[in-house]
Amino acid sequence: MRRLTSAADGANAGNGIKFGGSLSRRQLLQCGLTGFSSLTLSQLLQLRAVADQSDAQLRQSSPDSDSTRTAIILVWLRGGASHLETFDPKPLAPSDFRGPYQTIDTNVPGIQVCELLPRLAKIADKYTLLRSMAHTGGGHPAGSLQVLAGDPDPQDKLKPILPDWMSVASHLRRDSRRNIPNYIAVNPIDNYDSFTIAGPTYLGPAYEPFKVLGDPSAPQFEVPNVGLKDAKQVDVIRNRMTLKASLDRLQRQADQSGVMTAVDRIEQQAINLLTSSASRGAFDLSQESEAVRDRYGRNQWGQQCLMARRLVEAGVDIVATEFDGPMCGRVQNWDDHAVNQHVFDALKFRLPTLDQAVSALIEDIYARGLDKRVLVVVTGEFGRTPRISYVASSGEGVASAPAGTVQPGRDHWPRANSMLFAGGGIRTGQVIGATDARGEDPVSRRVGPGDFLATIYRHLGVDYKNVAIPNFAGRPVPIVDQGDAISELAGAAS
């Protein structure tokens, strides 16, 4: 087990940061750390304590009860799913636009989806479809940074310059009294090839998510360093912390800045997370019945969604989970260029898994009384080209013909994308916006990334019109530069 360090431990040889001395906000932001991969849990939470003290004026008060605290689950389709074969089918489009799949009616009159989503079709009264998202980020990095962070730059960049909304929300809703992190990534949204597509940037590494890696459907899957099972180990840690508290008392009494007091609280949070059986239970899928686990799907995506539900139920504010990997096909993402894979075979391969996992998540959110406070969002960075392209495959694999075989594909299309919203107390059973007959451009209620981010922040109780956060240069940067929350999603009481 890794040693729990504290302010009294002095300089950390692995990262060069001295926790015992005065640590300015600039030093914190420029420390160049990489999050949980290089920090112990206690160190990371100590960094958060200092950041919290520096930016206390930005944080808003949060509800005291986890039963009323709003939360969001983001299901991210890395690479960009085809809007035409999911939530915005165009059955009357010309043959060079129309795919092979039929549309089916949902349980809401007038709303149709692709036939590959029969389970979601049965619960359309529990979600709303936005069919008119559009932006200018044509590459995966730029598209991701526009949707996740509101960066208007249409050009790809290696690293983001703005923090993503998950990190911002984690920062603004930080409550060190809680025993479980308020931002957890189950299969994190972080990179696209060599590009970083999400991160806290000038908020600092303190606002990296608690990352859950691996396949939750694997029999031996376990989240390390959360909720020790050995009672003797727990007793040893608590005894050591009692001794340490005595040794630290003099330094704490001498501290005039208040940092030591904050560190004491955060270190206790780290200990609580490490020793709490309740925290361990939030990640423990074996506590679910076999029937529930089967309903989500005994695969990585299904169990990621089940863990996301358990985490928000345990009080986590933001859970991000990415759908990629082997469940996607040969290139392990949704980037369905013909050179990568046969777009229609790939969608037929992966959409039933998404359909089962997401429909089970939405049904559970409602069945368990979480639908007023927990918002579920399903999206990727953009849609796909309405006109079908035909290019030779670069290699054989799942959903791809042998190399050299000409096959159909759809390319990047930021001009139109669909998003699904469920729960969150929103008005459901509706479609917002529309694209033209070919699915190329919005013809009504065009929505941009700023509007999407404003909607997210509104649900989380963040005053997106007035909150700005200092960047590396100390200049306050609005968390939403342009955009307003999507009014059609507001609940009846809003």
How many domains comprise the coordinates?
2
Shape: globular
Straight-line distance between termini: 48 Å
Name given to the CATH architecture of the largest domain:
3-Layer(aba) Sandwich
The helix/strand class is alpha/beta
Any idea what the CATH superfamily of the largest domain is called?
Answer: Alkaline Phosphatase, subunit A
Would you give the CATH topology of the largest domain? Alkaline Phosphatase, subunit A
Describe this structure in words.
This protein has 12 helices and 20 strands. The chain folds into 2 domains: 1-54 and 229-275, no CATH class; 71-227 and 286-489, Alkaline Phosphatase, subunit A. Helix 10 (300-313) runs parallel beside helix 11. It has helices at 25-29, 41-54, 118-121, 140-149, 165-172, 231-254, 259-275, 277-283, 290-296, 300-313, 343-367, 449-459, and strands spanning 71-77, 103-105, 112-114, 127-133, 183-186, 191-192, 195-196, 210-212, 318-323, 374-379, 383-384, 389-392, 406-409, 412-413, 417-423, 430-432, 434-435, 442-444, 468-470, 476-478. 30% of the residues lie in helices and 15% in strands. It has an 8-stranded mixed β-sheet with strand order 8-5-9-1-10-15-4-16, with helices on both faces. Strands 2-3 form a two-stranded antiparallel ribbon. Residues 1-39, 54-64 and 256-266 have low confidence and may be disordered. With 494 residues, the protein is of the alpha/beta class.
